[in-house]
Amino acid sequence: MSVNFKVIQRKNPRDLAAAPKSYAIAINSGTVDIDRLAELVGDGSTVRQNDIYAVIIGLVNTIQGELKEGRSVSLGKLGIFSISVSSEGSDTPEEVNANNIKSAKVRYRPGKELKNMLKTLEYSKISS
């Protein structure tokens, strides 16, 4: 198994007169939804697919609740979820309040095993 990639050309946004360079980009070979994940996990265990599905939904709901409380959620080998915000600057610390926050994101940091998996990937070039 390998990750497919194709080649695209991009101009340098800092030097539009420069010749474009070629870069590899990963090609997504599809999406696995929650039903399929539950089926795959169920195939490798004695737990039924609908039970796994219920646990996954419960986990998502619990993660959302913990993030809303301002806590990071560590899922061991899977990684850590936390909240990150972007805000407008103010001249003094006293002027900063919740209205300065313009957007929030769920930040994900993969666990050590997922990071290590990236080091062992094999790649296959496909024609564009």
Describe this structure as you would to a colleague.
It is a single chain. This protein has helices at 34-43, 49-68, 112-119, and strands at 3-10, 21-26, 73-74, 79-87, 101-110, 123-125. The protein is of the alpha+beta class and 128 residues long. The protein has a domain at 72-89 and 101-119. Helix 1 packs across helix 2. The model has no long low-confidence stretch (mean pLDDT 94).
Keywords:
flat; 30% strand; alpha+beta; 3-stranded antiparallel sheet; 3-stranded mixed sheet; 128 residues; single chain; 30% helix; 6 strands
Task: Summarize the topology.
Elements: E1 3-10, E2 21-26, H1 34-43, H2 49-68, E3 73-74, E4 79-87, E5 101-110, H3 112-119, E6 123-125
Parallel strand pairs: 1-6
Antiparallel strand pairs: 1-2, 3-4, 4-5
Helix pairs in contact: 1-2
Care to give the gist of this entry?
The chain has helices spanning about 35-45, 50-70, 110-120, and strands at about 5-10, 20-25, 75, 80-85, 100-110, 125. With about 130 residues, the protein is of the alpha+beta class.
**Strand adjacency order, main sheet:** 2-1-6
Distance between the termini: 20 Å
Structure annotation, total helices: 3
Low-pLDDT regions: none
Helical amount among residues, as a percent range?
Answer: 25-40%
Portion in beta strands: 25-35%
Average pLDDT across residues? 94
The biggest beta sheet, please? 3 strands, mixed
Categorize the overall geometry. Answer: flat
Which structural category do the helix and sheet elements fall into? Answer: alpha+beta
Instruction: Give the tally of β-strands.
Output: 6
Order of helices and strands: EEHHEEEHE
Task: Output the radius of gyration.
Answer: 21 Å
Protein name: HU domain-containing protein
Domain HU: 1-123
Organism: Kordia antarctica
InterPro entries: HU-HIG, HU_DNA-bd_put, IHF-like_DNA-bd_dom_sf
